[in-house]
């Protein structure tokens, strides 16, 4: 994973938080929703990543005139043979970039539901498995809301994390300009999809203490019922909490984060670092909260402050 990150960093400047989340998503076999203004290397990151892991990469530019068949594929009739054949769509790849996903209508966004959860596509009653590993990274632009369609809640819940990408610092932008205007940089394939699948399997073996799982459960439950969780001031600000997918995402993400940090067991900080990314798109704020100009991130920090993290399990004995 360090080798993959090194190759990506040859091309992508800064964005350490974003790159770390991409790595976590790859190890935990989750999907990523990325929000940021244009020109922040979102597409470049996924393309470079595909080169580094020697995987297939496809990009779909979402537009209002897109239809579901443009994503998953369709049946084609051959006049010569008089038979139907199946043409598979661009979702059959290892790394799929859904660019500006909120520009397409809901029926197209819903076409991704099955493939993101089941890792398969059904065309004319026949199921087709997508290649392993399979990662969807969708981007959306927060500044141009005209001609966009909000993502359905069922679609948003399929994304393990929502990552916010910000502008680079002046020093980083200086390096970006130098790299883009200089000689092109070759990215070497340091791993293949088989090795990545083995890493994903190893990630599942990372130990997560039951107290840490309990902490994740309490945190997600607090968003669903703040009164029962002892934080009644949050109740009028939240319309809906997160689903059990959020709890699973926190535990799987903590595993991946621990592995990236060179440990075979997860610590509370591994999980806490990912809480805003896993919960921010799943909490539905009430009209009252929106009227007050509150954000999901602000409410998540209040939840984290209210709920103390468990003691560090296995911090003293790595071999346990």
UniProtKB/TrEMBL annotation:
<dbReference type="Pfam" id="PF07726">
    <property type="entry name" value="AAA_3"/>
</dbReference>
<dbReference type="InterPro" id="IPR050764">
    <property type="entry name" value="CbbQ/NirQ/NorQ/GpvN"/>
</dbReference>
<dbReference type="InterPro" id="IPR041628">
    <property type="entry name" value="ChlI/MoxR_AAA_lid"/>
</dbReference>
<feature type="domain" description="Sigma-54 factor interaction">
    <location>
        <begin position="1"/>
        <end position="141"/>
    </location>
</feature>
<dbReference type="InterPro" id="IPR011703">
    <property type="entry name" value="ATPase_AAA-3"/>
</dbReference>
<dbReference type="InterPro" id="IPR002078">
    <property type="entry name" value="Sigma_54_int"/>
</dbReference>
<dbReference type="InterPro" id="IPR027417">
    <property type="entry name" value="P-loop_NTPase"/>
</dbReference>
<dbReference type="Pfam" id="PF17863">
    <property type="entry name" value="AAA_lid_2"/>
</dbReference>
<protein>
    <submittedName>
        <fullName>MoxR family ATPase</fullName>
    </submittedName>
</protein>
């Amino acid at each position: 994973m360090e080798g993959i990150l090194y190759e990506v960093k040859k091309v992508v400047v800064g964005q350490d938080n974003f790159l770390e989340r991409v790595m976590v998503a790859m190890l935990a076999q989750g999907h990523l929703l990325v929000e940021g203004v244009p020109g922040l290397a979102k597409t470049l990151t996924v393309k470079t990543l595909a080169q580094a892991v020697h995987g297939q990469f496809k990009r779909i530019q979402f537009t209002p005139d897109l239809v579901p068949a443009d994503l998953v594929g369709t049946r084609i009739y051959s006049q010569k043979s008089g038979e139907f054949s199946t043409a598979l769509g661009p979702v059959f790849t290892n790394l799929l970039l859904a660019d500006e996903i909120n520009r397409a209508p809901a029926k197209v966004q819903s076409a991704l539901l099955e493939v993101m959860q089941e890792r398969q596509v059904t065309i004319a009653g026949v199921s087709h498995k997508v290649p392993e590993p399979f990662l969807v990274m969708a981007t959306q632009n927060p500044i141009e809301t005209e001609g966009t369609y909000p993502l359905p809640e069922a679609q948003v819940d399929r994304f393990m994390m929502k990552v916010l990408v910000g502008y680079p610092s002046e020093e980083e932008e200086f390096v970006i300009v130098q790299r883009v205007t200089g000689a092109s940089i070759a990215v070497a394939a340091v791993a293949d999809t088989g090795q990545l699948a083995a890493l994903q399997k190893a990630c599942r073996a990372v130990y997560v203490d039951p107290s840490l799982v309990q902490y994740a459960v309490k945190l997600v439950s607090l968003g669903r019922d703040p009164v029962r969780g002892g934080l009644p001031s949050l109740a009028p600000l939240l319309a809906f909490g997160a689903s059990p997918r959020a709890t699973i995402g926190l535990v799987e993400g903590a595993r991946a984060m621990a592995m990236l940090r060179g440990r075979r067991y997860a610590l509370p900080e591994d999980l806490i670092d990912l809480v805003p990314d896993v919960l921010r798109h799943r909490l539905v704020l009430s009209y009252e909260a929106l009227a007050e100009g509150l954000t999901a991130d602000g409410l998540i920090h209040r939840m984290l402050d209210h709920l103390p993290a468990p003691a560090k399990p296995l911090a003293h004995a790595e071999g346990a």
